[in-house]
Design brief:
Elements: E1 4-8, H1 11-18, H2 33-42, E2 47-54, E3 57-66, E4 77-84, H3 93-107, E5 112-117, H4 125-130, E6 134-138, E7 144-149
Parallel strand pairs: 4-5
Antiparallel strand pairs: 1-2, 2-3, 3-4, 5-7, 6-7
Length: about 150
């Protein structure tokens, strides 16, 4: 693994993000990447989207939103999406991406970051726990709301 870096999502990286592969069973826990990318168009001031590059290769994608005025507290500072290409999972790419998002949250004056996910075998809960998120509630749809304090 080379040196990882975060770059803003761009026209030159979006195709690679859309073509990232998942491990079997992971697709049931993710909506299509295009849903997450659309958030930038809707909320350009509050949306934060980055690709993780290893050299010239896109190996991950992370999306967050920082809106201190959002009516629902758990959506004010939130990690919306994280994808790491199947071949690159387990190498620290996801942790690197989350650390970048948490740094951005600190710079924007946020006190915490939430993540909302569906629990289940093969789901993301173990990863989110490893990077510091702890369950604090659930949505009206039964999804887990987890939080890390900054």
């Amino acid at each position: 693994m080379g040196e990882l870096r975060l770059e803003e999502l761009s026209a030159s990286t979006i195709v690679a993000v859309n073509n990232m592969s998942l491990k079997p069973g992971q697709e049931e826990f993710l909506s299509p990447v295009s849903y997450g990318i659309a958030a930038t168009v809707v909320n350009p001031q509050t949306s934060w989207q980055r690709v993780v590059l290893d050299g010239d290769d896109v190996v991950g994608f992370i999306s967050g939103n920082f809106d201190p005025d959002f009516p629902q507290e758990h959506f004010r500072s939130v990690l919306w999406r994280i994808n790491v290409d199947a071949d690159d999972q387990g190498r620290g790419v996801g942790r690197f991406a989350v650390e970048g998002l948490l740094g951005e949250a600190r710079e924007r004056g946020m006190s915490h970051v939430n993540v909302i996910y569906e629990a289940g075998e093969g789901g993301p809960q173990a990863f989110f726990h490893r990077v510091g998120f702890e369950p604090v509630g659930e949505t009206e749809y039964g999804e887990v709301i987890a939080e890390t304090r900054l």
